[in-house]
Amino acid sequence: MSCKFTELHCKEVICISDGRRLGFVTDAIVKLPEGRVLSILVPAAPRFPQIGRRDEFLIPWECIRKIGPDIILVDIKPDQCRISRPRLGFPF
Description:
Elements: H1 5-9, E1 12-15, E2 21-24, E3 27-31, E4 36-43, E5 53-60, E6 64-67, E7 71-74, H2 78-81, E8 82-86
Parallel strand pairs: 1-7
Antiparallel strand pairs: 1-2, 3-4, 4-5, 5-8, 6-7
């Protein structure tokens, strides 16, 4: 199977363990020079937008079970793959 990143970028990620919609793919981590995709990044909805942190889901490629025409099904608990990222810019 082959897929362009622009095609992945338009797909919604859904967790099959609880049916939760995680969001849309925004980036991928690729191992160079092999070009092997290690994981995909999906921004999480902010818990408290004013606090200044934004979480993302870092989903390993091995956890992807199915890539369909509109969605990507993943087999991972959202709490296991949530990472925090500091918000860039000024806090106000």
